[in-house]
């Protein structure tokens, strides 16, 4: 699983197009329909806390977990709330002191676990801490996205004083290695940072098997960007599951 290091302080800027407010509202509506309007919510692989803080402002008591100390440092500094606890843990090593009413794991975080046994462990540990009838919502980058969008392509982003070159290399088993070169403008030129990230795409049937083995019940899935039905070219798929 990737652990963001130097890339952490650029993450929010380079993901500026993500509508976190809409995602939080949509997830809250899912939880609301299940009767979960308050209580403890686990934001698994929370990153810089962009969703954590929104759930906290909605009234949930948030446990925000991430494997990157750098990401959590930014979250704690910039998105601190009395009802958020930030914990540094890998997903497959999750250990809490009690159960939670809901778990949210977004922004293709589960794709970062490229070993299927480790992914099963992560999902099973999450389910272990979920209350009966608790809801686990997560999204994944689709096989289509890995094969047809990421593929072996190179992407370039330019922001004020920042330049990103993102190069992909497809491997076996729908694994994609990504190399991110970030050039930050300084008073004497540009400083370069390089981050290596690996993701694996899992098919729908594989995801269903992970869900069942973890002791969860599959409820629904749909396009994680449009919130509409899953289409052959859906790049992100959102799953809703429940603890038995």
How is the secondary structure organized here?
Blueprint: H1 8-14, H2 20-33, E1 40-44, H3 52-57, E2 61-66, H4 69-78, E3 84-88, E4 100-105, H5 116-128, E5 130-141, H6 143-150, E6 154-159, E7 162-170, E8 175-186, E9 189-200, H7 204-213, E10 216-223, E11 236-243
Parallel strand pairs: 1-2, 1-4, 2-3, 4-5
Antiparallel strand pairs: 5-11, 6-7, 7-8, 8-9, 10-11
Distance between the termini: 28 Å
Question: What is the string of SSEs from the N terminus onward?
Answer: HHEHEHEEHEHEEEEHEE
| Global morphology | globular
- Nearest-integer average pLDDT: 94
Low-confidence stretches: none
Helix content: 25-40%
- Main sheet specs: 7 strands, mixed
Secondary structure class reads: alpha/beta
Radius of gyration: 18 Å
* Share in β-strands: 35-45%
What's the total count of β strands? Answer: 11
Number of helical segments with 4 or more residues: 7
What order do the strands of the largest sheet run in, or round the barrel if closed?
3-2-1-4-5-11-10
